[in-house]
Each structure stands twice: as C-alpha cells, then as structure tokens.
Amino acid sequence: MTAAESxxxxxxxxxxxxxxxxxxxxxxxxxxxxxxxxxxxxxxxxPPEVGLMEQFSVSxxxxxxxxxxxxxxxxxRVRRGARGGxxxxxxxxxxxxxxxxxxxxxxxxxxxxxxxxxxVTEPVxxxxxxxxxxxxxxxxxxxxxDGLAALIEAxxxxxxxxxxxxxxAYRFHELLMQRCxxxxxxxxxxxxxxxxxxxxxxxxxQGMRRDRFVEPNLKRLLQSFRKxxxxxxxxxxxxxxxxxxxxxxxxKKSAFLFDPKDMPLVDLxx
Length: 270
Hints:
Elements: H1 3-7, H2 23-36, H3 49-56, H4 60-72, E1 76-79, E2 85-88, H5 93-106, H6 111-132, H7 135-153, H8 156-159, H9 162-178, H10 183-205, H11 215-233, H12 237-255, H13 265-268
C-alpha cells in the first residue's frame, strides 16, 4: 500500500446491492396500477399484443412474461386464438386468502387459532354493520335467509345436500364482513372464513359431519341468522355483536366434534 493510498478514507458500504427490476416486471407494475386505480376495468380487454409491444418497445416474450405475472395474481386472464387477448379480472380477495393461508401454514398455525381469530373479527363486523346498514344490506341478508329456509322446506333430500347449505351459510358470513364498512376487516375476515370453509368442505368430503345437518340443527341455525337480521335492522349494535359472538362460539364448538383443535393448517390443505 502506498502512502497516498493509506491516507485515503476507507469506503463505507451503505446497504446492499439491489437488483434492477426486469422490463416485464415494470410492465406488469404499470398495468397493475391501472387496474387498481380503475383505469382498466373488469371485463375490459387489453389492446392486441402487437400494439402493446409497440407501446412499451418490447419483444413478444417480454410482454408475455408480464402477462404471466398478472395472471398469477389473478388480475388478467389470457385467451389464445383469433378472438383471444388479455382480459382484466376483478381483484379477488380469495387470492389474498390463499397467500395468507400459505403463510399461516408455514408458521404452524392450528385450526383453533383460526377459529379464535374469527370469534374476534366477525362479531366486530356485525356491530359495525348494524351501525351503518342500508336497506340493500337487509335485502341481501334476507335473500340468504330465505334461501336457507327454502332448503329446509324442500324436504329431507335437499337438507342433506350439505354442500348447498354450507355455501349459502357461508354467504351470510361473507355479507356481514363485506358490508361492515371497513375494507381491512372485510379482507381479513374473508381469509379466515375461507380457511374455515375449506375445513368444512374437507370434513363433508370425508362424511364426518352429517349429524350436524339434521333438520333440527339447521332450523336452530336459521333462527340465529333471522335474529341477526332483526338486530341489524333495528341498528342494535350491542345486541348484534353479542348475538354473533354467541353464534361464532357455537360454530367453533361444533367444528371440533371430529377434528382435533391442534390440527395444523398444513394438514388441512394437503
């Protein structure tokens, strides 16, 4: 080392080396931003590939790589052929649910942990909905309740169609969260409800829970839903939260009639 070199201050490394985003990632980011902002709406078809290649000054492989990124995020659907093209899709909260579900699996989360979180989240959503509900909210909740009542009245054959009943009941939970006025709670609740629905579907496929779907049990569940609608209609936020907390506690209890509370989610999604 020379004398001159020894007098030079040592260079300090700040941060770490950063990878420049690929062109395809930049294009995907641009289109994603347009979709999120509503500049590109659900059902709209993007311009032909040739036009986009010219607009972004890229090759076809680069553009198609950008499309694959957006397809993986369920923001577009690409159809091949003469009438094909990239069509914009409405952002789906269940895409987030799948990713968060995977994260919970990796952390060893149990089913009981998920149901405990639902007991916290959904009653709060019920309270908030009772405070701000609209006539449309009541109408949509009553559509679900009427549909469930029709399944019971149709007779034993329909009642034992467990998948139809569970889908309709899930819609009631979904409406409570979607209409509560808080998007963050709605998405968070949807993630947890989707995991619980996956649990129920798994149990149904294994023939483990048919005792839950006898007519007296279904009528009690229907009565709980009807009471909930009445409380929301009356804007009784305190009673709505209390009613739904009791409902969710009963749902958690029945959820573990056959599966252990400490069952890890990774076993559920196998």
